[in-house]
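Run log // design_07
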């Protein structure tokens, strides 16, 4: 078997022409971020955002050119759009979004985004526990880590290694605790994920939806990148979302950010399924006592004011952090704990909103 080197990959890519700019994609400087690991190759092709949707054949051609090389087991190529070259995004048009709805993942009933106005509020922690809680409630669940700035789901689920491919084209999702998972963190190293900083990822997410063998799912939870910038807006537009869950902490600042998140989803006509208040109060690991550290309850009243459902409060609890860090989130490591029940109640509410109840859904009302 021949050695796979960046030179061989670039030589193959010199055969791939950009039909609009005239020339091959290597000479035009469009190829970046080549990754080679045990026969699996990944790289990005930078294109102007407005050309992205038309360039799927180019992406496929590049994938095939590299995939056909002797010794290459799989090739995954993403189109990225560099912000500084990009003209401003046109205002989102719901009709357009509608048009691109169905074909991406036809066997997935509902795609739900978990989003936050800013980083560090526990979005990934909530996303993984909600996914596991939906599964615990009897649904078929997938978790797509779209947080390209800091993919953390592989770590939270204790998953390492690379996704396999059976046919050299579709990636098989990884699986943990019965939940199918895909993350850009499986395809590039954690530090290399930083290459997405600045460049706006346009179709990486679409590819992680379309080119992954998700199979039939009731719910696919998407852990979105934090914030409400162009990248998030594009994602919210491009993915056929059934709804969005907004994670916020009690502090006012975070709530202001959360409000931006809500208005972003409203702009693209994605229903907001509700707000989760994370780190709502402190649960003492020794005596179990509850302490309100921040002005607690802000998210609940804000939700009321904005007319979106309030999904519940998750305490600041060292057990939540430790179990996440240990690769076995609280819903599966302490399934009978109050924390796990909080997530299962929220999952039941969400499933109810989606009309996606499992075999025996506990439709529990969240109490004051
Ligand atoms: P984000 O995805 O918003 O950046 P993370 O989910 O990565 O946030 O959480 C940031 C940090 O806070 C992590 O170390 C995580 O374990 C911790 N964390 C999140 N929620 C809680 C919680 N309710 N209790 C304790 N620690 C938490």
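design_07 sequence
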């Amino acid at each position: 078997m021949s050695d796979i080197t960046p030179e061989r990959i670039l030589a193959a890519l010199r055969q791939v022409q950009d039909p609009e700019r005239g020339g091959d994609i290597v000479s035009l400087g469009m190829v970046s971020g080549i990754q080679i690991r045990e026969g699996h190759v990944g790289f990005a092709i930078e294109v102007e955002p407005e050309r992205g949707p038309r360039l799927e054949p180019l992406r496929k051609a590049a994938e095939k050119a590299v995939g056909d090389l002797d010794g290459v087991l799989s090739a995954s190529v993403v189109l990225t759009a560099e912000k500084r070259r990009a003209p401003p995004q046109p205002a989102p048009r719901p009709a357009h979004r509608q048009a691109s709805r169905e074909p991406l993942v036809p066997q997935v009933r509902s795609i739900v985004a978990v989003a936050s106005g800013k980083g560090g509020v526990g979005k990934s922690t909530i996303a993984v526990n909600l996914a596991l809680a939906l599964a615990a409630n009897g649904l078929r669940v997938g978790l797509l880590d779209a947080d390209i700035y800091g993919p953390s789901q592989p770590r939270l689920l204790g998953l390492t290694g690379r996704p396999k491919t059976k046919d050299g084209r579709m990636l098989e999702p990884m699986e943990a605790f019965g939940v199918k998972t895909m993350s850009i963190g499986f395809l590039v190293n954690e530090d290399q994920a930083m290459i997405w900083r600045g460049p706006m990822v346009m179709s990486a997410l679409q590819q992680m939806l379309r080119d992954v063998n998700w199979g039939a799912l009731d719910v696919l939870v998407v852990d979105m990148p934090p914030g409400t910038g162009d990248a998030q807006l594009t994602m919210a537009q491009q993915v056929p979302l059934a709804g969005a869950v907004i994670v916020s902490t009690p502090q006012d600042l975070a709530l202001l950010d959360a409000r931006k998140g809500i208005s972003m989803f409203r702009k693209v006509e994605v229903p907001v399924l509700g707000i989760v208040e994370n780190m709502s109060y402190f649960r003492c690991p020794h005596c179990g006592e509850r302490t309100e550290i921040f002005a607690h309850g802000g998210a609940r009243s804000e939700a009321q004011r904005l007319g979106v459902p309030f999904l519940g409060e998750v305490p600041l609890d060292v057990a939540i952090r430790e179990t996440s860090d240990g690769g076995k989130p609280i819903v599966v490591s302490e399934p009978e704990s109050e924390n796990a029940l909080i997530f299962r109640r929220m999952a039941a509410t969400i499933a109810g909103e989606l009309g996606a109840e499992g075999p025996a859904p506990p439709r529990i009302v969240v109490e004051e």
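The chain has two domains: 7-80, 108-354.
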